[in-house]
Amino acid sequence: MDIGCGVEMNCCKAVLTQFPDVRALIAVDKQSTVFQQAHFRDKKINSCVGNILERDSLKMHEGKMNKIISTNTFHHIDDKEMAFRNVYRLLKPGGEAGFLFVVNSWLYEFLKDLSELPKYSAILKGALPENLYPPDHGNQYYKEMLEKIGFKDVRAFEEEQRFCFPTDECFKDSIFGSLKIKLKMPLEAVETFKKDLLQVYEKAVGRYEGKLCHVSVRLNLLGVKPMESSDSKSKETTVN
């Protein structure tokens, strides 16, 4: 099962390429339009509209999954513990889960700093979520969370990912594009804002080999649901 498959279906594509003997793969997304617009299709892929935070939406699959993966989805989820619990419920005893999600971002920190400047504080107010990447929510924090839920053999490690923008214009358009639907800004102020974005980012973060880059820290998190035991059954029945 791939949770948060998205229109690109990247994980589904990778799994079927690397493991052609896989008999079936369930692609899950909370938006039904994802499956109408999917860029990759295969007869082995079964589409499922469901939300990992809403247990009932995936209840038919509980206790049936051998493996569950999710990439670049969990940093969009506020109640991660509930989502992890629902993943645990979906797994068969002995089933494995793997997650990859962002736990820190230079870009987010930069935009927070920008929002504190008097010139842009009113414009950016409400455009950024509060405390998106708490500093203490790293590999150890999430490792302990999975262990508390009941996962065994939990492994967690962070990796830094760097994406360099081809040109400064690409940087400005990308950052502004991600904010524009939330910004209250007159059209005549847009170009000035884009220039300030570039200057402040360059001063705060700098360049890598002459290019502006977005650097994020992503967490690889892996866990196994233990084989049936009185302990695991107890954990399942006491989870709300």
From TrEMBL:
InterPro entries associated with the record: Methyltransf_11, SAM-dependent_MTases_sf
Entry's Gene Ontology molecular function annotations: S-adenosylmethionine-dependent methyltransferase activity
Pfam families for the chain: Methyltransf_11 (PF08241)
Record-given protein name: Methyltransferase type 11 domain-containing protein
Cross-referenced Gene3D superfamilies: Vaccinia Virus protein VP39 (3.40.50.150)
Domain Methyltransferase type: 2-96
Organism: Trichonephila inaurata madagascariensis
